[in-house]
Amino acid sequence: MKIKQESYDTAVIVGRFQVDELHTGHVDLIQSVCDEHEKVIIFLGLSPVVNTKNNPLDFESRKQLILSSFPDVSVLYIKDVNSDELWSNTLDKQIGDLVSPNHSVVLYGSRSSFLVPYKGKYPTVELEPDSYVSGTDIRTRLSKSVKGSPDFRAGVIWASANRFPTVFTTVDIAIFNDDFSKILLGRKEAETKFRLIGGFSDVRDKSFEHSAAREMSEETGLATTSGVSNFVYLGSYNIDDWRYRGEVDGIRTMLYAVQPMGMGARPGDDIYELRWFDLPDKTDSAPKASSKRIKFHENVVPQHHEILARSLEYAKQMQNKVISKG
Q1: Residue 274 bridge partners (DSSP)
Q2: Is the per-residue pLDDT at 169 higher than 90?
Q3: Could you give the 3-state DSSP secondary structure of residue 53?
Q4: What pTM was computed for the model?
Q5: Residue 14 near residue 45 (C-beta atoms within 8 A)
Q6: Where are the alpha helices (DSSP H) in 112-149?
Q7: Comparing 10-161 with 167-325, is the CATH topology the same?
Q8: Which CATH architecture has domain 167-325?
């Protein structure tokens, strides 16, 4: 990479450098700028969403990456914001805080770099690299390889410990027959008790209602007459899933009720058995209804007791409406 000598005191480069080591494109860029300017500042873009597929490395690790090869440059960060104008003004202010008032500044970047959104006051120079190396391709390759070194394991541990706790969102569906006298529950092969139908929401689903419709179709083969509009939201609940006990992460489910077309359910996905359970009858005497409730809950996994109770409450409300109309 060759650049024309410019009469600027300070050169600025803005980039992400989200790689394990500087590739030839990075080295050529930084070295070419260093060869032409007395002072070089590198600003690293800092995403508000950390430890992600596109932004796996924190600021400090990227700073050390650059300083290990170019110890004389200054490495700082600039936070991402949802406004080109605000970002540009922030960058200009940070540069102004670092250089003397009588010093001239120029910004360097490639065609696909920060030069496109930059709206600031400093002049810019577009560089054409001799070779192009994709940081995305590098991260993809690295994500598929496991190293046997202690440094690799230490890095995995560090990344896991330095991220925000995650609430994994699921959907659970209380599936009732036409008069709310039965509820459909499923059993997994390794379990002896039943549970509400459901599973993890998918980022590709249009909504939680679409997630519920998808899970119901996958695990029971059932559908509704009017798509997602038939799903009634009953609330959100934390689920005491044994897989996350002792972890900082957890599961929160969105509970829905629905009446599908027909009762011909068939087990699918990870559901081994489906069964329609009779609900406690609202017209039963209190002792008898209570006895049924206890026996009924004994057939359900403990982590679903709370959402089952809410489902039964909704079923009673709907039964009362049917009785009042009758």
Answers
A1: 186
A2: yes
A3: coil
A4: 0.77
A5: yes
A6: 135-143
A7: no
A8: Alpha-Beta Complex (3.90)
